[in-house]
Amino acid sequence: MRVLTRDPAKAEFPAGVEVATGDLLDIDALRRTFAGVRTLFLLNAVTGDEFTQAIVTLNLAREAGVERVVYLSVFGADRAVEVPHFAVKFGAERMLRQMGFGATILRPTYFIDNEAMIRDVIVDHAVYPMPIGGKGVAMVDARDIAEIAAIALIRRDAAPGPLPVETINLVGPDTLTGAGLAAIWSAVLGRPVAYGGDDPSGFEQAMAGTMPRWMAYEMRLMAERFVGDGMIPEAGDRERLTAILGRPLHAYRDAAAALAGPAARAAA
Fold this sequence. Notes:
The chain is an alpha/beta fold. It has helices at about 25-35, 50-65, 85-100, 120-125, 140-160, 180-190, 200-205, 215-230, 235-245, 250-260, 260-265; strands at about 1-5, 20, 40, 70, 100-110, 125-130, 165-170, 195.
């Protein structure tokens, strides 16, 4: 097992995991990292050059003889092409297919873990601020994503030859609306929490104070998709995931209680 990271000082892995230093635009580092590798898990950060990173990485992987890939895409990548990081991931999915990789394409919905960024707003101001809308988003826990990714990676690596391309939607057990999320936090905290509404433009302005302007705009485009279409599982998605994991999916309410911490315990 070899992991490529920009900062080895932040890498915490079990004994036996080799840590390589570099990034996805460091050609020499990628070539060194791919030496002797046949199975790749690829996760791109949301950056202005995300697509270039994906193109370079997949080209160098093929050059090195990598045949098997597990790629972290995004739910609805083929539909929300106006959202830059969705369009990028759909482009990478097409590369995987057209370049002949055997690949598992994982398409997660919005991460429950992202709620850590808005935890203080919810707890201190009693407002759930994300414009999720009324269609519903089946938020998924990163622990479920990680475990399914590991299962897919091991399965592909252990196979006698490259397996066909497959796409797996990664969803949570509940499809949650903005109002429903506020209700969950109200129950967790033991006091009313209001939903901030469906206005992605206001969300963009708020995000512009904490991230680059282009990224805040991109988050607005994503929020517009939440409000307009939601992220609603397809028939059989949840059953497929629980069969792979052999256990239930992690629920949003449990994550909210953990995030609330002492505030939840005080309310109880």
